[in-house]
Amino acid sequence: MSEMHLVPLSRLNDAVRLVVRGFGSNPAEVEAVANNLIEANLMGHDSHGVGMLPRYADAFLEGGLKPNAHVSTVMDGGAMLRLDGNAGFGQVIGHEAMALGIARAQAAGSCIVALGNSHHLGRIGAWAEQCAAAGLVSMHFVNVIARAIVAPHGGSDARFGTNPFCAGVPLPGRPPVILDFATSMIAQGKTRVAHNKGEPVAPGCLIDDHGRATTDPRYTVEPPFGALLTFGTHKGYGLALMCELLGGALAAGMTQRTDDSTRRRVLNGMFSVLVDPTRLADPKQFEAEALAFIDSVKASPPREGFEPVSVAGEPERAWRARRTRDGVPIDATTWQEILAAAAKLGVGPEKVNAAAGLGS
Ligand SMILES: NC(=O)c1ccc[n+]([C@@H]2O[C@H](COP(=O)([O-])OP(=O)(O)OC[C@H]3O[C@@H](n4cnc5c(N)ncnc54)[C@H](O)[C@@H]3O)[C@@H](O)[C@H]2O)c1
Known about the structure:
Helix content is 43%, strand content 19%. The protein is an alpha+beta fold and 360 residues long. Helix 12 packs across helix 13 (349-356). Residues 45, 47-48, 120-125, 144, 162, 164, 166, 178-182, 186-187, 190, 268, 310-313, 315-316 line the site of nicotinamide-adenine-dinucleotide (NAD). Nicotinamide-adenine-dinucleotide binds at residues 45, 47-48, 120-125, 144, 162, 164, 166, 178-182, 186-187, 190, 268, 310-313, 315-316.
């Protein structure tokens, strides 16, 4: 197993900002990208944290990721917006797209945002959290334009991406419920993290290049490639299909490409529905029912071998509190890849190491 570094949050903030400046990003973009990636690590989703930087560096160097780009409006239908992300950092594009949608939903009661051609949008929960902070319910169906990595239920090879689904519900006086997951058994980045740590993945997540069950994460990391399986057999597969049809075909005008096997860029299409619950329903009734139901599910006595029942969003908040206090664990292989990416971007790896407090 690969050695782990435990990097204090303040040091990780400095080190990651150094690397992101290597893209030539303006100061606001450096903040947006660094904060979003580190936030994913803090929330326990290392798959979508600072370990993405090497992939972003490769994408930038091959011309597939365009720093300092902004969202442009392709179609303005009032409460329906069609936006182009211009292959910009998803951390900026996602925020701008949601800000536009939020303003419209606050004016009209709801808004549909169709976003195409954004570079990797990272942890989709960030966008539901942005909506929830504005008092809005939201749903997000997302497709992934990159090398196919997930097999359809019953299929023996990869035909689409890890197509995440996310929904957020704001609650009065409490943190929002944020459901946010890949429709594959595990996120692709989790196989990369397992590969870097030299660990197997859980049974039932992967097939090899012959369609046979395996626990070796190499089959998603290096050729010959196998595939991830969808969660929940035909049900997760059905949700993944909807993410491709709504986030890809409808919102982005682009579905999985077969010629993407060698490209490093990751584009996302996202179909988002934003709703102001106070305009759709009696706010007092909605709030009372939502809170009562959540209290009821959490009161279910835990089964043997299980922790007390939680609702979506709680595990991330617990991770966040722990890692903010104790520091962020990063395996040595991932850290070496980040240093190599820094070098490719013209940023001295020794400076990044020093900023992280990891010596030379
Ligand atoms: N941008 C992209 O292309 C892309 C692609 C795939 C995944 N992702 C992101 O990857 C991240 C990780 O996805 P994942 O599939 O590994 O997530 P996951 O399997 O860890 O599931 C996370 C979700 O389940 C909830 N959850 C976890 N444990 C729970 C419990 N015991 N009880 C109740 N709820 C619980 C969490 O609160 C969260 O909503 C997500 O943020 C997702 O958006 C992004």
